[in-house]
């Protein structure tokens, strides 16, 4: 199974936030969309919209734990590592993506094909896909 197979079953909308937005805005976006991660984009006039990282619930918790209530005013860019964007492609296997997530201790990966952000895959998506496969296999045996 490939990442693209999973993305086809998900909504096409990808929730993003700009690097210069605050942790508070990011938390509000995640809450309003009922999601736990946002793709961080750096809007540079010469390069267009470029995915530079992921901002997750863990980042919100870290900001509050380290800075108290003032953590909500920190910029998203202060909490992500833009040098280490881990991503995958739609043709990557689910096994490869699961390995990447385990190795980097992350639960969400942006899916980037030909330098364009096309989606986000999560550990939950992978787990659901395996559950669906198992259910289908069980039905075909019975």
From TrEMBL:
Keywords assigned by UniProt, alphabetized: CBS domain
Keyword set includes Chaperone: no
Family matches, as SMART domains: CBS
PROSITE patterns in alphabetical order: CBS
Location of the CBS domain: 7-71, 79-138
Keyword Glycoprotein: no
Recorded superkingdom: Bacteria
PANTHER family: CBS DOMAIN-CONTAINING PROTEIN (PTHR43080:SF2), CBS DOMAIN-CONTAINING PROTEIN CBSX3, MITOCHONDRIAL (PTHR43080)
Official protein name in the record: CBS domain-containing protein
Species per Swiss-Prot/TrEMBL record: Bradyrhizobium erythrophlei
